[in-house]
Amino acid sequence: MAPLKNPAPPSSQSQRGAALLLLLAMTSLGAAALLVSALGHSGLEARRQQLTVRRLSQASEALVGFATSNGRLPRPAISAVDGRENPQPCDSEESCTGFLPWVTLGIDGSDAWGKLLRYSVTPVYTILPVQRLSAFATKTVQTRGTDGQLYYLVGQDICTQASPCAPAVILSHGKNNLGTSLSGQPQPNSASGNIDELYNALATSTFISRAATDDPRAPGGAYDDQLAVLSLATLYKQMHAAHKLR
Fold first, then answer.
1. Which of 51, 68, 153, 202 sits CB 3.0–4.6 Å from 242 for a disulfide?
2. Are 31 and 169 in contact (CB under 8 A)?
3. What is each CA distance from 45 to 41, 50, 176, 190, 224, in whole angstroms?
């Protein structure tokens, strides 16, 4: 898969108190802070959404498991049809963004709609050994407030070693728009004005997570993406316990 270009980061409003409360609520989900919004449909679609949530959580747990065994996080998959970890180093946000390496992790690499899960990892965390005192995570997640403005759920404008962001993000494109099928075919965008979904499809460092909606008039347009964010604290805790952290 050719590296994706990172679009210019969206504008943000700093609402730190609300972001902190949301982030604290999400940390209780364990290995992954799931940033998931469901459309609320009953029946089959509800089950598919729940299955996708489970697969995102399983992917986060598998990433931590890989790190406790190998001392680093995996690189993205070789391609949409080869789920092994790419053997070539990824040294930029773009080259470290692609598909979840599902074969290497030994898990299902797709969501419940048959689309491959995207995976974006901070480059330094794919290099052995991970140096805790110098490495810093670079992935951020934004959402929209009631006024439609973007603000941070995870991270901030500038990620540093003292104020790190997240080491990795996993993304499902949801049912309706974009993504890549299990056969490696890019899926079309059938919506108009779904700028947040389009942004996520190209993102390599900052992602958007918000309430799902079919309403094209909503700020950011129609949206049904689902995200999982790898917890840096959990990653470090498990790697330290396995004596895999410098």
1. 68
2. no
3. 6, 9, 12, 18, 12
Per-residue tokens: 198: 């389009």
Q: For residue 214, what is the DSSP state?
A: -
- What is the predicted pLDDT for the residue at 23? 42
One-letter amino acid of 209: S
Delimit the domains of the chain by residue range. Answer: 24-241
- Rounded distance between C-alpha atoms, residue 214 and residue 113, angstroms: 17
For residues 76 and 149, what is the distance between their CA atoms, to the nearest angstrom? Answer: 31
Q: List pLDDT tens digits, range 100-132.
A: 999 999 999 999 999 999 999 999 999 999 999
In 10 A of CB 49, how many CB atoms?
25
Q: How far is CA 11 from CA 1, 139, 144, 208, in A?
A: 29, 16, 11, 12
How far, in Å, CA of 166 to CA of 159, rounded? 9
In this structure, the dihedral spanned by the alpha carbons of residues 39, 115, 165 and 219, taken in order and rounded to 10 degrees, is -40
DSSP states along 107-168: S--B-TTSBBPEEEE-GGGGSSSP-TTT----BEEEEE-TTS-EEEEE--SS--SSS--BSE
pLDDT digits (tens, 9 = 90+) for 46-65: 899 999 999 999 999 999 99
Could you tell me whether strands 82-85 and 77-79 are parallel, antiparallel, or unpaired per DSSP bridges? antiparallel
